[in-house]
Every structure is written in structure tokens, then in C-alpha cells.
Amino acid sequence: MCILSLIIFEKRRGLVLILVLSSGVALNDAICHNLLKPLIARPRPCQTIDLNKPGLRCSHNFSFPSNHAGNSFTAATMLSLRFPFVSIPAYGLAITVGFSRIHLGLHYPLDILGGAIVGGLMGWFFFLLYRKTISAAQL
Fold it and tell me: pLDDT category, 114, cuts 50, 70, 90?
């Protein structure tokens, strides 16, 4: 629904925002998963602590930084910079995603903070890219 609204009301700018936002989230995910996690190699809480949570499926890859938090903060940062009135719900959702990862025993709080920092920086960088693209295309 949000994507459709962006295309209807923002037209080309909305489409560019969707493409740049998607690229930002994809690059954040790739950097966190393929570069930072193997480099830091921190085990997940569910790999080192018996959490006794029925149905918990613990991933076998590393924990720091949280991809979910990073991706959520990339999107929240970009959307908040473009539409300041969505800052509270966007960051509220990103924070909720982060807390859910801790609650599930899949990440430590520092993993979430690391993901939030990387994601926030990625969102800021891609927002600048979005502005340059809009300016260059004169949309």
C-alpha cells in the first residue's frame, strides 16, 4: 500500500525513492552479512546460552551486526529524511524489530545497536544519492 501510494502521489520521484531505498537495504544486507559478520565472528546468544524457547530456530551464522536492525534502520532513515512526518512510526517500527531480535534470543543488544548505526549511515548515504538523482534528472 505504501509503495503504491508513493507511485501515485510522488510519481517519478516515488519510483526513484523505491529503487534507491531497495538498493540501500540490499547493500546494507550484503555488507552486514558478507563482510561484517564474518569479520567480527560473534556467536549468537542462542548458540552459546540454553534459552529453552520452544520452536526457536537458531541461525548458524554470526550475530554482529543484526541484519534485521540494519535493514530496518536503513529504510527508517531514508523515509524520515524524505518525509519527516513519518519519523516516529518509521523509527518506532525499526526499534520494535530490534527488540524482537533480542527477545527471540537471536541477538545481543549491542548487535542491534551496531545494525542500527550501520543502517542509519547507509540510509543517510542513500538519501543523498536519492537527492542527487532527483536533482540530476530534474524530477
Answer: very high
